[in-house]
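input
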Amino acid sequence: MKFKFVWVGKTRDPNWKTLQAEYLRRLSHFVNCEIMEVRDSGGPTAIEVEGNDLLSKLNQNTFVVLLDVTGRHLSTPELAAELDKWQNRSLREVAFIIGGAQGASSRVAERADVKLSLSFLTFTHEMARVILIEQLYRAFTIIKGFPYQK
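output
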């Protein structure tokens, strides 16, 4: 299985960038990973432009997880169970999408196989990226029976 992280904009803050790289390194012990950034847009059509750019990064058979405020709230063990199901289904590629400042376009939402919310709280995009990758890493440690999650 391969994870694609597709999001709008770059991680600019060096502290978040370092954490992102560290958890991506850890996660890559369990699954191949790739980050694909699309340019953030401005103006009244930004959400549609960004949405088209996000969708252009996906393959037709990619399983898509959209991070969205209206998405499912999962505990870390529940996330681990979902990942385990995806592995058992032999999914080849899972893309995690984080939209821009205005969210994700309706086309991106329609393309999503799963909508996931990280929290009832609101995070910056840079924080959300790190939290997502860390939680995926933590979920794999649960699946493999490692002590990290405790």
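quick obs: The domain at 2-149 is CATH 3.40.1280.10 (Alpha/beta knot).
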